[in-house]
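Researcher: Quick one. two chains, 806 residues in total.
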Amino acid sequence: MDWHLRSNWCHCDCHCDDFIVEVSKMKKRVTSIVLVLILVIGMTIPVMADPMPFILDESDVLTDEDTVEFQSYAENLEQNYGVQIIYICTDLLNGLDNETYTEQISAIYSEDCIILLDNQETGTIYMQGFGKAIELLDDETCHVLLSAYNKNSTYSGGLQAYMESVEECLINADLGTAKEPMVITEDKIPSAIFDESLLPRLNDEADILTAQEEAKILGILDEISERQMFDVVIAVVNDFEQNNVKDAAYDYYDYNGFGYGENNDGVCLYLSMEERDLNIGGTGFGIVAFSDFGREQILEQIKPELSKDDYYAAFLEFAQICDDYVSEANNGTPYDVDHKPFKDKFNSFYIFWGVLFVGIIVAFILVKIEERKLKSVHYARDAQDYMRKGSMHLVNRMDCYVYSNTVSEYDPKNDDDGGSKVDSGSSGVSHSSTSSKF
Amino acid sequence: MGNVMEYECPKCGGTLEFHSSIQKLKCSFCDAEYEMEEMQVPNEAGQQGQNMQTNMQADSFQWNTDAGSQWQKGEQDGIRVYSCQSCGGEIVGDATMASTKCPFCDNPIVMTGQISGDLKPDYVLPFKLDKKDAKSAFEKHLLDKKLLPKEFRDKNKIDEIKGIYVPFWLFDTELDTAIVYNAENVKKWRSGDYVYTKTDYFDVLREGSIAFENIPVDGSSKMPDDLMESLEPFDFKEAVPFNPGYLAGYAADRYDVDAQSSIGNINTRVRQSAENAFKKTVSGYSYVAVKQSFVQLKNNTVKYALYPVWFLNVTWNGEKYTFAMNGQTGKFVGNLPIDKKAKRSMFMKWTGIFAVIGAIATAIAMIL
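Model:
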């Protein structure tokens, strides 16, 4: 009788059967070992080959070189401070809101991280801190970090400034033990900044304000805007590319997502420092609240401070005036030619002196008239009374044209009927605005 | 008829006086009235002026100043010359002239003799208004004058009211004139934010002739020229050939400025009138002004006439004020004193009223 492995179901019952069972068991054992090895190796390879991606540029706003550079920067920050700084620029959130999306992303990173999400789909920016990063992100720091990102006109420039600001914060921070992830909610920072528009309501690109002044004014603008549900925006740029300051202001407002509601209600004060041009423009309900006359009045109020380069005072005044204008418009009585915004005591002073001056002239004239009544003796000027009737004969008449002179004078029309003249920017959104030099 | 020069009433022999209200001689005793023609003394007309050569490149103001005529025999007999020892003024009047005061300085005058050597007037414009009219005109002249001192109105003293025939040289002339005017037409229009003003400039020529008659210039150095010119116009149509009878009851100022010397202002007056008259033919322009004018007189004559003037002299605060009334039309002239205090008060009153209005307006503006 031949017995070998290949005939395990052969006729050799006992021994063959036992051997076959043992071989089977061995096979299983070997297979398991191989599988474990594969798993281990498989899990190890990625760790040994690539680090975690901290710069997720799905919208391709950065060049490859920039992405590598920023990735390296983020890795250094993690290495030095133990906090991962993640930047995501995407338009594929699959219907998720910023917070949910960020939460999900944070799961694949360490528990100490800060995620900056640039949502290209909605045009908003969202920032959330986790773990130790929560302590870093107080109100002021958030503003500083986001301003750094927004200030720059390019994505790479903005991201660079943002990461430098983060590094500065990390250097200064004394990181403790955080318990829960910190979410930047509407309670902590107005959501309008992060959820509604790309830029803060005060954008001091030309750096004419100090950090404290900027923070103060931005706070006021935010408070007014949220309370009135009406964006009050100030932008200071070095120069503009458009043909005129009006177009530049329109584009700035429209393409940076400002404005409440479907009509983008708001008002924008736009200054260009190189040309010293400014524009005040209303959008949506702002066209009603800020009439042509009303905008002229605002200009008159803030121009003296702007001319003296006292921008802080001018912007403060602008914010307060806008608050008043919007309130009046909400009451159904927007400021216009028939409902003037300012009780100008200065003009009232002029009324008195003007009337008095007229009175002096009138008194002088009346006295002269009475004085002339006392004088009735004078030389005769002509001999009209002694002209013989019908004696005048015209024998020659000639009218010769000599020359002409034309003078033109710039005199813009004043629309005394009130209201606002409306036009639109390149986006097609309607605005009304007033431009001037300062 | 009696002595023409004495003008005795034919009925009763009383003295005839010329009454301006009825334009007749009237007897002061029997009230008989006589027309002037009944007492007429023929006179001779003045000479005609010679034609002037016109030259429109330059002015030519040459006046023919022959006027008046010689007295006929006997006409001067009843006329006397009275002289003022104070101011040297001389008047002529009839021998029965009641006035003994100088019309110029109010001092007494003395008769120095018969009139002689003077020209006889060609015409006389008789008095139409009498002394009563002069007085009431003076009182009316003081009304409605807020700056006249109250004391003057209440306490003025009329020293005397005198009717004087003032000697006038009456100039007739035709003149040729060429006037160049600057004329402009202005148009304004708006285009966008610009207002355009176009001014077209023109030179306008008007050439022609015009005539004047009986332009009066007083022939007395004692009569202020501005006072006499203020009394104009005199209507020559009511003038009559001179008759010494008109002097009865009145004085006549003796001329001491001949026609040539009295021309003075007349050239300016005729030029101004010519420019104004021809300017009316320049139409269709926004602005017209005289650039240059040439005047050449021709066919001019002069007459010597006596025009009636009532004089009133008033003394107030040691100062003499002279008033005059046109004895034909009643026009009353004369400068009055100014109450400086009242002038200041009026000025302050109106300024104060407007200051109050200004304060109220300011308060209203601040409240609204």
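Chain A has a mean pLDDT of 80.
Researcher: Thanks, that's what I needed.
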